[in-house]
Design goal:
Helix content: 25-40%
Distance between the termini: 50 Å
Largest sheet: 4 strands, antiparallel
Number of strands: 15
CATH superfamily: Creatinase/methionine aminopeptidase superfamily
Number of helices: 5
CATH topology: Creatine Amidinohydrolase
Number of domains: 1
CATH class: Alpha Beta
Bound molecules: 2-amino-4-trifluoromethylsulfanyl-butyric acid, cobalt (II) ion
């Protein structure tokens, strides 16, 4: 009798011969590990499509990087994102996504993520802002975000921004083919804690490519060797949200989008879209 239900995500069509990849994944599935559905493994053509989408996405972020400054409204950032994206034959994925009203998320200081650009929100010297850009090109999705420091900020906020970036890099380095999603989260949380920071638990990275949000959920905390198996061909984001104080967050009741830290201390986040290869992770949003 089975003492534990094995989740059989990986199914090989009847009569089809097992590939080397099938055998490797089935080995983990039979040991009781969570493995991806076969449909999460992108074809080389799909990966190329996501890469092209990522090139436009990176262009948007580079444009924002060159223009962002004190005195600018977040609505101006939104217009820049919208125009550049359309000029490059693409669409901004946030626009109209589950009712989101703008083309980009702009999240300042204690706003963790999903901030809505507004004419009334003016960037000030010392602000730290996350600009989260997601692009659809020829049906392929890419997703990345960066922090920008407006002028000069306090050493405390600058350190938060820097450590959040390190968390993304460290998470990326912890991901290896036939490792686990939990390896990534474990490395990230460890690094954040070492600096006295906390990791947001209510929001996570995600599979991406054919849709905006696909499996797996990529938590930025956890235990090594747990969570979904990382198989070459999977495309997903890593996007740790690092808080100066408590990890607890709430959603603004006025707009039902803006996520804010419970203690209203600052938060920082960096994000890339990656493809897992036989050799390790490759960034698709450089
Ligand atoms: N870009 C966000 C992410 O990293 C998702 C934003 S959803 C939106 O997953 F509707 F707010 F755009
Ligand atoms: Co994302």
């Amino acid at each position: 009798m089975l003492s534990r239900k094995i989740c059989r995500n990986w199914r090989v069509p009847k009569g089809q011969e097992l590939t080397e990849l099938d055998k490797r994944v089935l080995y983990f599935q039979n040991k009781g590990h969570l493995v991806p559905k076969r449909s999460l493994i992108k074809t080389p053509e799909q990966i190329e499509g996501i890469r092209q989408s990522g090139i436009v996405n990176t262009g948007v972020l580079d444009l924002v990087a060159s223009e962002i400054k004190a005195g600018m409204s977040t609505a101006e950032i939104d217009r820049m994102v919208y125009e550049y994206t359309l000029d490059h034959g693409a669409l901004p994925a946030p626009l109209g996504y589950e009712g989101f009203p703008k083309s980009v998320c702009t999240s300042i200081n204690e706003v963790v993520c999903h901030g809505i650009p507004s004419e009334d929100e003016i960037l000030e010297e010392g602000d730290i802002i996350n600009v989260d850009v997601s692009t659809i090109l020829n049906g392929y999705y890419s997703d990345a975000s960066r922090m920008f420091v407006i002028g000069e900020t306090t050493p405390e906020k600058q350190r938060l921004v820097d450590v959040a970036r390190e968390c993304l890099i460290i998470g990326m380095e912890a991901a290896r083919p036939f490792g686990f999603v939990g390896d990534i989260g474990n490395a990230i949380e460890h690094h954040a804690r070492k600096h006295g920071y906390s990791i947001v638990r209510d929001l996570c990275g995600h599979g991406v490519g054919l849709e905006f949000h696909e499996d797996p959920e990529v938590e930025h905390f956890g235990r090594k060797g747990t969570g979904m198996l990382l198989v070459p061909g999977m495309v997903f984001t890593i996007e740790p949200m690092v808080n100066m104080g408590t990890h607890e967050v709430f959603v603004d009741e006025d707009d039902n989008w803006t996520v804010v830290t419970e203690d209203e201390l600052p938060s920082a986040q960096w994000e890339h879209t990656f493809v897992m290869t036989e050799q390790g992770l490759e960034i698709l949003t450089y």
